Amino acid sequence: MTWRPRLPGIAEMSQEVRDGAVSPSLFARRSVEAIRQDDRGELSLHAFLSVLDDRELDALGDGPRVGRLAGVPIAIKDNLATLGLPTTCGSRILEGYRSGYEATVVRRLREAGAIIIGKTNMDEFGMGSSTEHSAFGPTRNPRDLNRVPGGSSGGSAAAVAAGLVPAALGSDTGGSVRQPASLCGVVGIKPTYGRVSRYGLVAFASSLDQVGTLARTVEDAAVLLEVISGWDPRDSTTAEHGAMDAVTAGDVRGASGLVVGVPSEHFRDTLDASIRDLCVRALGRLEGLGAEVRPVSLPHAEYAIPAYYIIAPAEASSNLARYDGVRYGLRVVDEPSVRALHETTRSEGLGAEVKRRILLGTYVLSAGYHEAYYGRAQRVRGLIRRDFDTVFGTGVDLIFTPTSPTTAFRLGERLRDPVKMYLSDVFTVSANLAGIPALSLPIGEVGGLPVGGQLLGPRWSEPKLIRAAMALESSLGSGGAR
Questions:
Q1: Which of 36, 126, 393, 398 is the 20 to 30 Å CA partner of 156?
Q2: For residue 482, what pLDDT is reported?
Q3: What are phi and psi of 122, to 5 degrees?
Q4: Which helix (DSSP H) or strand (DSSP E) does residue 30 occupy?
Q5: DSSP codes joined into one string, 122-187
Q6: d(CA 149, CA 157)
Q7: Cis omega before residue 317 (within 30°)?
């Protein structure tokens, strides 16, 4: 498959629709046809689990010609509730399930004129770093069909990278927007916890989950974030001041005057030399743009992965208890008791990775072990948050790290080694534990495969984060190739 974007960017699309130059449904039809052509291919990406059919496309009619996203086709990760399309979370236990309500972020996209054209593949319930844990088969990386796109938002990242849609929504619990963005060569933003509503996002780990955006450019990802952000009375964790300011392309300030910290803990000798070199080049570009680059320390960074893989499974074991074969989703019939119904339904409906995390989470919350594991992990989380506060309190505006320790790995390469799979998120989980915003953008390639660089900032610093990323993107060029 040739990797080639097939659709223009968000601003160009919506302007053509608002000007009346094209039908409001034109780009949606082109997007759906591109998805169908890919699905008919011998080795398709398998980025989508459901797509609008011809009847639904016809029902769009001419549609509205207003809104910031007028006529723009957007893909939605399949753990965000939508009206009219299934919400399966990549799991057999929710196969064919249709929600009776819609996520706030999806509603806000529609109100801005966007057309939701389909739901993207994902690791089951968001548990994975490769999109190989989907019950409906893996997604492939458009840059190399023998490699993974990352996860768990791999379907959204692959769809954007292949040019099937200009932008997509994902969810980020420990890096599930940024890591696939890095592996597929696109931009991914995880906002501050509380900036975007989680209403309608099927919960994995409620204190970590955030809806994020993926696009081919920083500006498009930022525009999408601006549209979906803001306080929501249906989600008590959203902040009243959570709405984003207008995004201005080519902000004249760029990275000038910013202080960018480089944590030594993320640039150890074990980091691949080629990835390190690209990060050093990106930091050099930031200096050339007027930023000051200085070394910093995040002393508890090494404990982020173990803390995350206690806290996230603990919350998941509680959140996934609702999938019991009684209220909705799969139900295995002809069982002699309610307990047998629960056990058989969950055994047949949930995949191996989800079961592993439920068991781990139940164990660390059990009597006699809660304080030894979960309580201690929460204290480590507090230390990680304090490390960031300390660095940002010394005049550092942003922090730069690699997004992923490797480029896209081969399909099946890590399925038998869960720990190696978990380490794919070594540079991303800290942002979720601390609740701070983070952005990944392409900074170059190694062996023809994309590499992402990550910018992190204090809570509510997305405008500054986006401004610096736009400047770096402009300096590096498309895909970080210059």
A1: 398
A2: 60
A3: -160, 160
A4: helix 26-39
A5: -SGGG--SSS---TT----BTTBTTB---SSSHHHHHHHHTTSSSEEEEEESSSTTHHHHHHHT-E
A6: 7
A7: no
As beta bridge partners, residue 90 has none
User: Can you tell me the distance from the alpha carbon of 244 to that of 45, in angstroms, rounded to the nearest whole number?
Assistant: 33
Residues of the chain with pLDDT below 50 are 1-3
- The residues, ordered by sequence, that sit 6+ positions from 475 with a Cβ below 8 Å of its Cβ are 285, 288, 289, 482
The tokens of 42 are what? 């011998």
Position 339 scores a pLDDT of: 85
Rounded Cα–Cα distance for residues 275 and 281 (Å): 10
pLDDT confidence of residue 6? 63
The residues that bridge with 438 in the sheet, in sequence order, are 190, 456
- Cβ burial of 308 (10 Å; 0-12, 13-18, 19+) is buried
Phi then psi for 450, rounded to 5 degrees? -65, 150
For residue 251, the model assigns a pLDDT of: 60
- pTM tops 0.90: yes
* CB 292, CB 260: distance < 8 Å: yes
Which residues are known catalytic residues? 77, 152, 176
* Distance from the Cα of residue 473 to its chain's centroid: 19
What pLDDT does 335 receive? 73
Q: In degrees to the nearest 10, what's the CA dihedral of 234, 51, 206, 428?
A: -130
